[in-house]
Design brief:
Helix content: 25-40%
Radius of gyration: 24 Å
Number of strands: 14
Shape: globular
Strand order of the largest sheet: 3-4-6-8-7-9-10-11-12-13-14
Low-confidence stretches: 1-18, 514-523, 589-596
Oligomer: single chain
Largest sheet: 11 strands, mixed
Pfam families: COesterase (PF00135)
Protein name: Carboxylesterase type B domain-containing protein
Number of helices: 17
Domain Carboxylesterase type B: 22-561
Mean pLDDT: 91
Strand content: 5-15%
Biased composition (Low complexity): 509-531
GO molecular function, one term: carboxylic ester hydrolase activity
C-alpha cells in the first residue's frame, strides 16, 4: 500500500511539475500548451507562442482578407514561435501560413479564470517597413514589460506583396496585412480572458510601420470596439503625400519580376497565385526605386467599394479625423530624437575615407532623388520648388557632405516620422474627444541600433527606445549594473503600463500603477511611480500643444517637437481640404516608396 501511495505521489508531483513547465489553457477553439519563461528579475512568464488566429491565407485566399480560425481537436503545441511571414533575407523559419500570435501572461492557468484578477492587455504590432520582421520572441521578448502585471500579445501579419498588394478590385482589394491585425484583435476579444486578460481593457501598441497601423486602426470602421487605448511610436499615416487608392503599377512590376503576363488582371493573378510565397517575399527589395532609404515599398491604401469586401480604410486618415469618424480613445504618440538620421552613416564614413560617391549622387541628382527619398510628387514645377526649398531650409543651399550630413538626416527623420506624427497630433488633439499625449524619447544609452564604426552612437535612433521595452536577443539585456539605462527602462515600462491601465501615462494623486508587484522588488510600480510623479504628463491640445521629453529627466515642454522644421514642411505640404487629396496630389498613385 505504501508503495502504491508513493507511486501516486510521484506521479502527481510529476504532473504538477509538467503543468508548471508546460501550462495548458482551455479556450473556445481548443486546448493550448505553452511554456514558462522568466522576466528580467526572474518572475515566471506563462508563454503561449505561435497560436494560429486565422486560417492559412493560401491558395485563393492569397491577397484577400483573412478567414476566422477554426477550432482544433488536439492540444495545440504553443511552446515555440510560429513561422514568420515571407520576407527577404530572414534567418527565421518562414511560411505563408504565418498568421500567428504570442500571448504572455504573469498568471498561471489555475489563476486565469477569476474575472476580478484579469489584467490589462497590450497588443503589439511590429515595425519593419511592412516587408520585414515578425512577432518572434527573440526580436520582441516579453522580459521587461512582463515585470508589470499585464498580458502582452505580439502579432504576425502578412508583409510585402502578400500583405499589401492592391489593384482596386476583388483580386487584391488591399490592406490584407491590416485586416490580419483586425482578425488578431477579434481573436483577443474572444479568447484573452482565458489567459487572464481583460478584453475590455486592450491597448494597441505599434512601432514604425506598426505605429502607422495603429494610427489607421484609430480611424478604421473595422477596428471599432476592439481596443480602448492606442500607442503609436515613431510613425503615423498622415504623411505629406496622401495614401493611394491602389498600387496597380507596383503590382504590375511585381508580376513582371516573376515572369507573369500583365495584359489582364485575370492572367496576371492566375500567374501570381501559382508562384511560391518565398518568391514573392524575396523579391521585395527589387521593387524599391532607391536602395538604402527607409522605404516602405507597399503602402496601405484607401479602398474602393467592392461588393462583398469589408473596407478597412474608406477615406484618407486626415479626412476621417476631421470628420470625426474615428475610434476616439486616449492616444499616446511620439518620436525619437534622431529617428532616421543614421541613414547618412554609411555615406559619411565612406566620405571620410575619400569616397564621396554617395554624396556626389545626391548633389548631381538632387531634383530626381529628393522626391523619391522624401515622398512627394515627381516632375513638374511644384516638385522642383519643393526640392529647392528643402535643400535651402535644411542644407542652407550647400552641397551635401560629411560636414552637413546630419542636416540631411534631419530631412529623412522629419518626412518619414516627425512630420506625420506632428500632423496626426494636431488633428487628433483638435477633433478627438479623448486626450492626446505627445512625447519625444531623448534618452541616449550605451546601446543603439545605429553606431559609427568606432562604436559610438549616432544619437537616439529609430527603434532605440524598443531596447527599453523588449528583450532583443541581438542586443545585451539591460541590468541594474547600468543605472542610467535601468532607470530609463523602469520609467518607460511604467509609462506604458500606466497608460494601458488608465489611459494616463503618469499617475495622478492617489492613483496606483498598473499591476502592483512585490513591495520589496526594485521594479515595484509604486517606486517607479514615485519617480514619474515628479512630472505631470499633460495632454497636448489644439490651443496649447505640449510634449514630454523623456531624457535624463522627465520634462514637459511647450509647443511642437522641432517646431520650426514642422512649420516649413506644413508650408511645403499643406493639408488638402476634406475630399480633395486626389485633386491636390493627382499623381500619388504611382509612387513605390514610403516609410516603415
Amino acid at each position: 500500500m505504501k508503495v502504491f501511495c508513493l507511486v501516486l505521489c510521484i506521479a502527481a508531483a510529476a504532473l504538477a511539475a509538467d503543468s508548471q513547465s508546460n501550462p495548458e489553457v482551455q479556450t473556445q477553439l481548443g486546448r493550448i500548451r505553452g511554456s514558462v519563461l522568466q522576466s528580467r528579475s526572474g518572475k515566471p512568464i506563462y508563454a503561449y507562442r505561435g497560436i494560429r488566429y486565422a486560417q492559412a491565407p493560401t491558395g485563393q485566399n492569397r491577397f484577400k482578407a483573412p478567414q476566422a480560425v477554426q477550432a482544433w481537436s488536439e492540444t495545440l503545441d504553443a511552446t515555440r514561435d510560429g513561422p514568420a511571414c515571407p520576407q527577404p533575407s530572414s534567418n527565421q523559419t518562414e511560411s505563408e501560413d504565418c498568421l500567428r500570435l504570442n500571448i504572455y501572461t504573469r498568471q498561471s492557468p489555475s489563476n486565469s479564470q477569476s474575472q476580478s484578477s484579469q489584467n490589462d492587455v497590450i497588443v503589439f504590432f511590429h515595425p519593419g517597413n511592412y516587408w520585414s520582421s515578425s512577432a518572434a520572441s527573440q526580436e520582441f521578448g516579453p522580459q521587461y514589460l512582463l515585470e508589470k502585471n499585464i498580458v502582452l500579445v505580439t502579432v504576425n501579419y502578412r508583409l510585402g506583396s502578400l500583405g499589401f498588394m492592391s489593384t482596386g478590385d476583388s483580386n487584391a482589394p488591399g490592406n490584407a496585412g491590416l485586416k490580419d491585425q483586425v482578425e488578431a484583435l477579434r481573436f483577443v476579444q474572444k479568447n484573452i480572458a482565458q489567459f487572464n486578460g481583460n478584453p475590455n481593457s486592450v491597448t494597441i501598441l505599434g512601432y514604425g510601420a506598426g505605429a502607422i497601423s495603429v494610427s489607421l486602426h484609430y480611424v478604421s470602421p473595422m477596428s471599432q470596439g476592439l481596443f480602448q487605448r492606442a500607442i503609436a511610436m515613431s510613425g503615423a499615416a498622415t504623411l505629406q503625400n496622401p495614401l493611394p487608392h491602389s498600387q496597380e503599377q507596383l503590382a504590375h512590376k511585381q508580376a513582371e519580376l516573376l515572369g507573369c503576363n500583365t495584359d489582364s488582371h485575370q492572367a496576371m493573378f492566375a500567374c501570381l497565385l501559382s508562384k511560391s510565397a518565398e518568391q514573392l517575399g524575396d523579391s521585395a527589395p527589387q521593387l524599391a526605386e532607391r536602395q538604402g532609404d527607409p522605404s516602405l515599398i507597399w503602402t496601405p491604401v484607401v479602398e474602393p467599394e467592392i461588393p462583398g469586401v469589408e473596407r478597412f480604410l474608406p477615406a484618407q486618415p486626415a479626412d476621417l479625423i476631421r470628420e470625426r469618424k474615428i475610434n476616439a480613445v486616449p492616444l499616446l504618440i511620439g518620436v525619437n530624437r534622431d529617428e532616421h538620421g543614421p541613414v547618412v552613416i554609411n555615406a559619411t564614413q565612406q566620405s571620410q575615407q575619400g569616397n564621396n560617391s554617395i554624396f556626389d549622387d545626391y548633389n548631381n541628382n538632387w531634383s530626381k532623388i529628393a522626391p523619391i527619398s522624401f515622398y512627394y510628387e515627381r516632375n513638374g514645377s511644384r516638385s522642383t520648388r519643393i526640392s529647392k526649398e528643402l535643400k535651402s531650409h535644411y542644407l542652407n543651399d550647400q552641397p551635401v557632405s560629411a560636414s552637413n550630413a546630419r542636416q540631411l538626416g534631419n530631412i529623412y527623420s522629419d518626412v518619414w516620422v516627425n512630420f506625420p506624427v506632428y500632423r496626426y497630433v494636431k488633428l487628433a488633439a483638435e477633433y478627438s474627444s479623448q486626450p492626446v499625449y505627445y512625447y519625444q524619447f531623448a534618452s541616449e544609452g550605451s546601446d543603439s541600433f545605429a553606431k559609427w564604426s568606432n562604436g559610438s552612437n549616432y544619437g537616439v535612433a529609430h527603434q532605440d527606445d524598443l531596447l527599453y521595452l523588449f528583450n532583443v536577443s541581438s542586443h545585451s539585456p539591460i541590468s541594474p549594473s547600468q543605472p542610467r539605462e535601468f532607470k530609463t527602462l523602469q520609467r518607460y515600462t511604467a509609462l506604458i503600463a500606466n497608460f494601458a491601465r488608465s489611459g494616463q501615462p503618469t499617475p495622478q494623486s492617489g492613483q496606483n500603477n498598473a499591476g502592483s508587484d512585490d513591495s520589496n522588488n526594485q521594479d515595484n510600480d509604486a517606486n517607479n511611480n514615485a519617480d514619474l510623479a515628479s512630472v505631470n504628463f499633460q495632454p497636448s491640445t489644439a490651443a496649447e500643444p505640449k510634449y514630454l521629453e523623456i531624457g535624463e529627466r522627465l520634462q514637459m515642454k511647450s509647443g511642437y517637437i522641432n517646431a520650426q522644421r514642422m512649420n516649413k514642411l506644413e508650408e511645403l505640404f499643406p493639408l488638402p481640404a476634406i475630399g480633395q487629396s486626389d485633386n491636390q496630389y493627382p499623381n500619388n498613385q504611382q509612387y513605390y516608396t514610403h516609410q516603415g
